[in-house]
Amino acid sequence: MKRYLITVFVFLFLTAFPYGNVRGADLTSLSELVKRLKPSVVNISTTNIVRRSIMPFESPFGGGENDPFEEFFRRFFGENPQREFRQRGLGSGFIISEDGYIITNNHVVEKAKDIDVILEDGRRYEAKVIGKDPKTDLALIKIKPDRRLQAVRFGDSDKLEIGEWVVAIGNPFGLGHTVTVGIVSAKGRSLGLGAYDDFIQTDAAINPGNSGGPLFNLNGEVVGVNTAIIAGGQGIGFAIPANMARYVVEQLKSKGKVVRGWLGVLVQQVTPEIAESLNLREPVGALVADVTPGGPAEKAGIKRGDIIVEFNGVKIKEMSELPKRVAMTPPGTESEIKLIRNGREKTVKLRLGELPDSGAAISSRGGDQKNIEEGLGITVQEITPQIRRMFNIRESEGVIVTNVEQGSVAWDAGLRRGDVILEINKKPVRNLSEYRKVIGSIKQGQTVLFLIKREENTLYIALRLEGEEQ
After folding, report:
1. Taking Cα atoms as reference points, which of 363, 351, 361, 349 lies closest to residue 293?
2. Active site residue 177
């Protein structure tokens, strides 16, 4: 009887977990896989020049951009003299060709004056930037090796499944070629960093210095580019999907920039309330809030209030899916869009345009506003529950600054990432729509007064836009 039960148990176990379903390497040890992959991963060391104020007195708070003593001194005695300092940075990357092309993150090399690449065997090379794409935070750099290098193989990130094992190799805190293992925790994550957010979430340990390094599947194929973490979080890292990285890098290599498709609409999320008001069965698709005059969408007859539910045969469930699909479709492509207008489904055919270098695939509202926003040098986002958790803020109204370009007017005036804008020129800013309306009324050469919330404090920051267009 015991022998019978053991036989049944073994049979059921093998049936539930057949050997053929375990893809890639043996999970009992990844050592052979890692040995094979490590030569394709590089450590990156950067040096850039920064300008900092020189305080005549030592600050009791330790100094830094948010130091209240420096703020007090600047307010009453004016700007302090500045001096140049060399700042070092660390990152990771991976080799995609035998002759030395390497993928990394844009933020690793964006401000770098010098870039050094260190291979697994210790060989060190200077690198130059071939192309950068801030919209996806990807960059392509090149070294001149004295021998052929081992390049990675790309996998299909669309086929990656939640729960699948992945391996991260990188340079966290300068600890070169560190290996960590985890699973795919989620796909399609949006962090509020831009229109093309589409991150793979993993619990493989990712730390500062891992940026730009590869995320492998157990077949030894790159399925992601490790990019971001949540400050204070544990086991929460994010990677750019390999399919997006490959699309971007191929263009950076051939053209030095990324050319994207352009539809010429401004869209927003279809909420349950909007769906109910429009008599939709479910809140899916992208609601057209505005149409760019003269753009492909207007020429094809797309109107404000239309709900785009399908693009080139791919269903659009979330608003954020549309900009990514459009951007990754070459300009000039004949495209088919299914939309809902007044409760009826309609099919529209059009030819995609080319996204302007400074534009967005799902367009902004006008040239003057765009020039003002570029002149400020800041990027803002609507405050959503996800943004509140990410930045650990309490405010539900206003817009949050998600990026400030170093050396810009906003940076020099003291605006920083994480600041919540509550007012502009004494006019309330409760959401992104009000922010755009106020920004659109500002003229070049005008002084702009911001009321912001920073941690537990509110403060005013004034800046003056240059009289000429940026």
Report:
1. 363
2. no
Total residue length of the chain: 470
Q: Which of 45, 92, 137, 335 is catalytic?
A: 137
108 and 170 share a domain? yes
**pLDDT tens-digit readout, 46-86:** 998 766 655 555 555 455 555 555 555 555 555 555 666 77
pLDDT for position 186 = 93
Q: Distances in Å between the alpha carbon of 142 and those of 44, 115, 170, 216, 253?
A: 12, 10, 18, 22, 10
Report residue 268 as tokens: 């927003």
Rounded to two decimals, the pTM is 0.64
216 and 155 both lie in a single domain: yes
198 neighbors 81 (Cβ within 8 angstroms): no
Query: CA nearest 268: which of 398, 436, 409?
Result: 436
Given 40, 45, 107, 177, which residue is catalytic?
Answer: 107
- Given the residues 185, 211, 335, 363, select the one marked as catalytic: 211
Distance CA 449, CA 460 (A): 7
Which structural domain range is residue 438 located in? 367-464
pLDDT in tens, 161-174: 999 999 999 999 88
CA–CA distances in Å: residue 189 to residues 102, 108, 123, 200, 310: 25, 22, 37, 6, 20
Asked if residue 169 lies in contact with residue 40, where contact means CB atoms within 8 angstroms, the answer is no
Question: Which residues, 6 or more positions from 400, have their beta carbon under 8 angstroms from its beta carbon?
Answer: 380, 381, 383, 387, 391, 393, 418, 419, 420, 421
Residues 208 and 142 in one domain: yes
Least Cα distance to 170 among 232, 124, 231, 108 occurs for 108
